[in-house]
Amino acid sequence: MDRVDGFATFDTGIGTCGIAWNAVAVTAVQLPERTVDAVRERLRRARPGTVEGTPPAHARAAIAAICVLVETGEGDLSGIELDMSGVADFARAVYVAARRIPAGSTATYGEIAAEIGRPGSARAVGRALGANPYPIVVPCHRVLAAGGRSGGFSAEGGVTTKMRLLAREQAVLGLW
After folding, report:
1. What are φ and ψ of residue 17, in 5° steps?
2. pLDDT, tens digit, for every residue of 69-103?
3. At what angle do helices 57-72 and 158-168 cross, to 10 degrees?
4. Does residue 160 fall inside a structural domain?
5. Does residue 1 fall inside a structural domain?
6. What's the pLDDT tens digit per position in 10-41?
7. Count: domains in the chain
8. Residue 79 lies in a domain
9. Which of 59, 140, 155, 165 does the annotation list as catalytic?
């Protein structure tokens, strides 16, 4: 029988990613690192006590949807259930708002701040997205700095990875 809480790695068009899950939801997503072992280590740190295993149906569906988005730049990941039980209220609001940005569109940190009723908190939005435990599913790569500047990106490869993801989605700046 498969473990209820676990993680797995999977190959995508941008490299080997990782996913962690519990009985009903995705608990973490990991973008590629320099090595597959580094992806595994990041997931182990993010979800202590989980063991690598075979993903259950809901995690397999999430993997498939992530792969389609990364490969084609198209797709909707809003149906992927996320376990946000350990996420602070502010970050949760940021992640919910960011999930509403469709593929091919972008928003600014300030627009997200205004969307969640916290105008003037663009830097806090950036910090929350920098700690995003569900990249791609919570599309932090679609959030830019004011004036369409790239802003930061905490994944391996930094802003280059962010811009690669936006290019795959053929993102048009500021259409959210």
Report:
1. -105, 175
2. 988 888 889 999 999 999 999 999 999 999 999 98
3. 90
4. yes
5. no
6. 999 889 999 999 999 999 999 999 999 999 99
7. 2
8. no
9. 140
